[in-house]
Design brief:
Blueprint: E1 6-8, E2 14-16, E3 18-21, H1 36-46, E4 50-52, H2 60-70, E5 78-83, H3 91-102, E6 107-112, H4 121-136, E7 140-146, H5 150-159, E8 166-170, H6 178-186, E9 190-194, H7 198-201, H8 209-219, H9 223-232, E10 237-240, H10 245-254, H11 262-272, H12 281-284
The chain binds NADP nicotinamide-adenine-dinucleotide phosphate.
Length: 291
């Protein structure tokens, strides 16, 4: 059974709230991509309908193989891809290569992976115009950004015909981005959270350990599922990954079976504020931003 939770983006398209990410543990660049086709197949057959990919992960062909092996029709899958933004190729050239690698005619969502290439606002705004052009040609159904602060989105909004549909950022209880998240909400720009399980894998022990454990017991699920629902139950897209078939299947079974209450969401948030951790932000935005 496919996960049935979606939200609507500001361009009218629907996005599934749970994505299987193919970076980190299963990328060719930082992990082991050999097992990836099987994992993508397992994820799709288990009910995931959203794959989060990127040119930078160097595994688009393996993702394509997994999609073919799954037997799930292309039109039932929401594919997010990301542009690395190198100076040597245009956005359209980069996206056409990605489409070719993925074996598809369009992606559902195309993101500028980060703003590190842009020397100034003009570079950044020019890039957004190229993003609008690939959308206009039907190569990407929605367009958005990743790893950017409010100021970068404001620069886009000054010139945009189509505003960004989403900002994909690191977000978890130890890095809540409260101001950015509430500003995005006011602008009707969706939020996608990566590294949702950082409190479980990178920074233990920590102040959310006990509540994750007690809620996992209450709902009879794994602690990682508490971390994922904390994002989903705030209407945020959550991007997680796993190198283990059992975990991929387990999420598909357990995540639709429960929901956190609003008190539980705020209790986790309050405890999370007692610790600060970011695995990525200092790399993409060394000048900081709200935590
Ligand atoms: N836009 C960007 O710049 C950007 C940056 C980073 C990531 N991403 C995307 O987000 C995806 C997910 O990123 P992430 O890896 O940081 O996600 P994550 O969901 O925080 O972490 C996933 C990892 O957590 C481990 N895990 C799960 N439950 C655990 C537990 N109870 N205890 C200890 N470890 C546990 C899993 O290990 P097992 O493998 O053992 O199951 C898996 O490797 C990436 O694949 C990528 O698609 C995007």
């Amino acid at each position: 059974m496919p996960f049935s939770q979606y939200i609507q983006l500001n361009d009218g398209n629907k996005i599934p709230l749970i994505a299987f990410g193919v970076g980190s543990a299963v990328s060719k660049r930082w992990g082991n991509a050999k097992a990836l086709p099987e994992l993508v197949k397992t994820a799709l057959q288990a009910g995931y309908r959203h794959l989060d990919t990127a040119e930078e992960y160097e595994n688009e062909e393996e993702v394509a193989e997994g999609i073919r092996m799954s037997g799930v029709p292309r039109e039932d899958i929401f594919i997010t891809a990301k542009d690395l933004s190198t100076e040597s190729v245009t956005t359209e050239q980069a996206l056409r290569k990605t489409l070719n690698n993925l074996g598809v005619e369009y992606v559902d969502l195309y993101l500028i992976h980060n703003a590190m290439f842009a020397k100034n606002d003009q570079d950044w705004q020019r890039k957004w115009t190229e993003m609008e052009a690939v959308r206009e040609k039907g190569l990407a159904r929605s367009i958005g950004v990743s790893n950017v602060e409010r100021q970068k989105i404001e620069a886009i909004l000054k010139i945009a015909k189509v505003p960004p549909a989403i900002n994909q950022i690191e977000l978890h209880p130890y890095f809540q981005r409260t101001e950015l998240a509430s500003w995005l909400k006011q602008q009707n720009i969706a939020l996608a959270c990566y590294s949702p399980l950082a409190p479980l894998r990178s920074t233990r022990p920590g102040p959310v350990d006990d509540i994750f454990q007690s809620l996992a017991e209450k709902y009879n699920v794994d602690e990682s599922e508490i971390g994922l629902r904390w994002a989903i139950d705030q209407d945020r897209v959550v991007i997680t990954t796993s190198s283990k078939v059992e975990r991929v299947r387990g999420y598909a079974k357990s995540l639709p079976s429960f929901k956190l209450t609003s008190d539980e969401i705020s209790d986790i948030a309050e405890l999370g504020k007692k610790k600060e951790f970011s695995g990525f932000w200092q790399f993409f935005a060394p000048s900081g931003g709200d935590k």
